[in-house]
Design brief:
The structure is a single chain. This protein is an alpha/beta fold. It is built from 13 helices and 15 strands. The chain folds into two domains: about 160 residues, VC0802-like (2-Layer Sandwich), CATH 3.30.2130; about 220 residues, HUPs (Rossmann fold, 3-Layer(aba) Sandwich). Strand 5, helix 4 and strand 6 form a beta-alpha-beta unit. The longest helix is centred in the C-terminal third of the chain and has 19 residues. It comes from Listeria rocourtiae. InterPro entries: Rossmann-like_a/b/a_fold, ThiI_AANH, ThiI_fer, ThiI_N, THUMP_dom, THUMP_ThiI, tRNA_STrfase, tRNA_sulfurtransferase_ThiI. This is Probable tRNA sulfurtransferase.
Amino acid sequence: MMKYDRIVVRYGELSTKGRNRKQFIKKLAHNVKRAIADFPEVKVFGERDRMYLLLNGADDQVVLERLRPIFGIQSFSPAVRVAQDLEEMKQAGLSLVRAMHQMGGTFKVNTRRADRSFELDTNEINHELGGFILQHIDDLRVDVRNPDVKLLVDVRSEGVFLSCQTIQGAGGLPVSSSGRAMLMLSGGIDSPVAGYLAMKRGVELEAVHFHSPPYTSERAKQKAIDLAGKLAQYSGQVQMHVVPFTAIQEMIKKQIPEGYTMTVTRRMMLRITDALRQRREGLAIVNGESLGQVASQTLESMLAINDVTTTPIIRPVVSMDKNEIITIAQAIDTYDISVQPFEDCCTIFTPPSPKTRPKLEKVERYESFIDFEALIQEAVAAAETFSVEVANLNKVQDEFSDLF
């Protein structure tokens, strides 16, 4: 098996960033380093139009898998570097094609010459390397349209990079390049998908989960932590805040008319999340609301709930139907966790007939008889905050850009 000495990373959307480009590349390099923190021998160099990972003996296959879910990467290739010397290029190209070749297979050479001072042009390089490889592999043919193996040759001033693989990256923008937001993470299907989509646009997320013992179990809390662990694949880790919500839910059930308990519950959750956002210097709140899916997600309900804050609320799945959301949940490996039968605090006190068109003035009147501010401050102060590290890195999903 071919032993690679480096990985070449291509940026994709980052290429369009002008003066901010350096900052985006710096964020991406940070996220890559965090994802391979257990390989200290790997050195990461973020150049203007490429990133290079010098493997220094590290397991190239494991490092390649770690790169798959990192947002901001368009594609990447395991590669070898040789000097700008035609004989070295021929030998390296032969070794790479031989390692990928199957009996009766086809190939082509595709050269990109960034360094125009190199003595041969792209066609001459293709001809020289292709002819040499054909001489040394008996059952190999050239197919320029649909080859089984494509030898990529990148001639640059710092050397010549050769590779036979181009692996699709996750696309998007590096996590944290767009700022920090709080994700309202339940144990359901929608909120992890919303978190994933926000992260793809460069948002660094901190998860907020509401826990109501003894009505919700420790297993329900662990379910939310497991979901945060899946999201951590895209950033290396996710900060999580578990908020004790029992006292507030009991007060709502006792004092608020039944049809309005869901609306008031959501308003309290949003107020607490906003307080945590201020403490953590976040810029927005992300949730998994999908318009019309449940009673609390009508436009009238959103208006009544949203009224407690002026903070921007990002709803990445608002226009998706359930099947679209499920497809993404399965692709990012959160679906099987989300459907585990452990109830979260959103479902334990759900009234049989919640108001689908709550009136804001009625909600405010019902709340005015209760000192919710004190209860909110107690909940924020008692929130348990910890870091959730990458969960199950070996099970990295396939590229899912075709979902969009």
